[in-house]
Please model this.
Amino acid sequence: MTVSPPIWMTPAAYRRLEEELATLQALVAQDGPDDVQENAVAVRAARRARIQQILEWLLYAVVDESPPDDGVAEPGMVLTVRFDRTGDTETFLMGVRGAEYGDVEVYSVRSPLGLALLGARVGDRREYTVPSGESMPVTLIGAVPYGMHRQDA
Model:
């Protein structure tokens, strides 16, 4: 049996997901069982899939427990990375895509970049594979808990 890891999210993201869940559940309840048009069936299936996804996120959510400010890449941390081949940098939250944090780009822990960086410390160099199969080197140059990142801007 596979157990999902805890999913870090802000209280605002948690509330938005609860609101979206309530809206989707109301829409599904209103769907008529007689409506078998292809589009209606597809919409109903998409709503149910999104409901399932949100329920899983809420079930494993860790809300407002900021990780320690120790420079380690983990969920709830805003990471700044340097793409070593180009020298470009990017800052993003390691969190849950689709939970809408608003002020910062989000990368999932399960994404290739997220998996490569998980557990990295500032200064660590890691590699991840892009869809073309090419290995890309990246260096973690910053990691601060969500909320503290605005103080660094």
